[in-house]
Amino acid sequence: MPEALQDPEKRKVLLIEDDHVIAEEIVSALDNRGFCVKHVNNGDAGLEAALNDEVDVMIIDRMLPSVDGVGIEGLSIIEKMHQQGIYTPVLVLSALSAVDDRIDGLKAGGDDYLTKPFVVEELLLRLEALLRRPSDTRETRLCVGPLEMDLVERRTWCNGNEITLLPREFRLLTYFMRRPGQVLTRAMLLEDVWQYRFIPRTNLVDVHVGRLRRKIDLPGQESFIQSVRGVGFQLRVSD
């Protein structure tokens, strides 16, 4: 597959994935969206590329083969990156879908976790969300338009007025505020806010978004959280 990381106008992606079918599908989708993609298919080359190539975002499979036939954890690559002071956003791909596996992936430094099989469009949405995050993801305060959150004290304000949120509402709003302007699917919200390993037939997301709207929206003004027909929701605020 071509390695086209030279174009300075395009966002650069490093894909570390040993399944050639999955890799080809991802590379094709990213190429069609205007990304430059470098693909490597084993842990040794992946670690070298992760430590030396300047990219905007990485996609790393959790379990990778090594050139000597011994498997290497994709999470180990992330840990070694961080040891070298490299904090490029990483989307972890894995066939392991248990909640504990997802937690391990995020604890190891992955910024997002997507289980196989997946829909490529969702992968693209998640990449876009990672690319829109502030460079320092360890911030303790979020500010999007008139909305403010203190992540340490777990307090929320709108136009300077404090809002009382239940724990799930706080987590849901945090997820939206980390991804302003991004279209978030119900599947993304159920997986990342509720940690569902499967997507049940439920209106759980819509109910909680409705409650959140009633608490944060300003009287007589358009809702901050807009519905995107047939897809999900989007946080829209004015500067």
What do you see in this structure?
The structure is a single chain. By secondary structure, the protein is of the alpha/beta class. 36% of the residues lie in helices and 23% in strands. It has two domains: 12-132, 3-Layer(aba) Sandwich (Rossmann fold), CATH 3.40.50; 141-235, Arc Repressor Mutant, subunit A, CATH 1.10.10. The strands form four sheets. A five-stranded parallel β-sheet has the order 2-1-3-6-7, sandwiched between helices. Strands 8-9-10-11 form a four-stranded antiparallel β-sheet, covered by helices on one side. Helix 2 packs parallel to helix 3 (74-83) and helix 6 crosses helix 8 (204-216). The model is unreliable at 1-8 (pLDDT under 50).
Short summary:
The chain is an alpha/beta fold and 239 residues long. The protein has helices at 20-32, 43-52, 74-83, 99-107, 120-132, 167-177, 186-192, 204-216, and strands at residues 12-16, 36-40, 57-61, 63-64, 72-73, 90-94, 112-115, 141-144, 147-150, 155-158, 161-163, 183-185, 225-228, 232-235. Residues 1-8 have low confidence and may be disordered.
List strands and helices in order, with pairings.
Blueprint: E1 12-16, H1 20-32, E2 36-40, H2 43-52, E3 57-61, E4 63-64, E5 72-73, H3 74-83, E6 90-94, H4 99-107, E7 112-115, H5 120-132, E8 141-144, E9 147-150, E10 155-158, E11 161-163, H6 167-177, E12 183-185, H7 186-192, H8 204-216, E13 225-228, E14 232-235
Parallel strand pairs: 1-2, 1-3, 3-6, 6-7
Antiparallel strand pairs: 4-5, 8-9, 9-10, 10-11, 12-14, 13-14
Number of strands: 14
Would you identify the CATH H-level superfamily of the largest domain?
Answer: Response regulator
End-to-end span in angstroms?
A: 42 Å
Question: Which architecture of the largest domain per CATH?
Answer: 3-Layer(aba) Sandwich
Into how many domains do the coordinates divide? 2
Sheet with most strands: 5 strands, parallel
Q: Round the Cα radius of gyration to an integer and report it.
A: 19 Å
CATH class (first level) name of the largest domain? Alpha Beta
* Residue-averaged pLDDT: 83
How much strand content do the residues show? 15-25%
Strand arrangement, major sheet: 2-1-3-6-7
Query: What is the overall silhouette?
Result: globular
Order of helices and strands: EHEHEEEHEHEHEEEEHEHHEE
